[in-house]
Specification:
Oligomer: single chain
CATH superfamily: Protein of unknown function DUF192
Number of strands: 8
Order of helices and strands: HEEHEEEEEEH
Number of domains: 1
Protein name: Conserved hypothetical secreted protein
CATH architecture: Sandwich
Organism: Azoarcus sp. (strain BH72)
Largest sheet: 6 strands, mixed
Pfam family, one: DUF192
CATH class: Mainly Beta
CATH topology: Jelly Rolls
Keywords: Signal
Distance between the termini: 41 Å
Radius of gyration: 17 Å
Helix content: 10-25%
Strand order of the largest sheet: 1-2-3-8-5-6
Strand content: 25-35%
């Protein structure tokens, strides 16, 4: 196979991957959660593909917006920041939306950040968002009952 053919295949594969990622992001449904008086517009990652993609390669996210990951079962789920360019905080939530724990995560690291108990959801926000609003373990995030089921 010629060098040109190899390069063309590589470019095609990269373009296909980028198109697939853009398509997955474009199809993420939107929802609104709340914490006390704070409204939280979120993108919903409820499919295996959208949960895997998450906020990877994003250069910015509006300060008051986030992404909620909907898992298929309650478990001690873990998150990492591979290919994620933004510093984030993640709140792990039980099935009723109660915050189990909040972890700060640094960009482009592969450290595991895990729920301290069985979590059904993970809510990612810009780093410090929860702390700036005085939110902590035991507080309630409302609206999770309206989210689509994870699959």
């Amino acid at each position: 196979m010629s060098v040109r053919a190899v390069l063309l295949r590589a470019v095609f594969a990269l373009a296909l991957g980028a198109a697939s990622a853009a398509h997955a992001r474009a199809e993420m449904p939107l929802a609104e959660l709340s914490a006390g008086m704070y409204r939280i517009p979120v993108e919903v990652a409820a499919t295996p593909q959208s949960r895997q993609l998450g906020l990877m390669n994003r250069k910015e996210m509006p300060q008051q917006q986030g992404m909620v990951f909907v898992f298929t079962e309650d478990a001690r789920h873990c998150m990492w920041m591979k290919n994620t360019l933004l510093p984030l905080s993640v709140a792990f939530l039980d099935g009723q939306g109660r915050i189990l724990n909040i972890e700060d995560m640094q960009p482009q690291t592969e450290d595991s950040h895990c729920a301290r108990g069985p979590a059904r959801f993970a809510l990612e926000m810009n780093q410090g968002w929860f702390r700036e609003r005085g939110l902590r373990a035991g507080d309630q995030i409302r609206g999770v009952e309206r989210l689509p089921a994870g699959y």
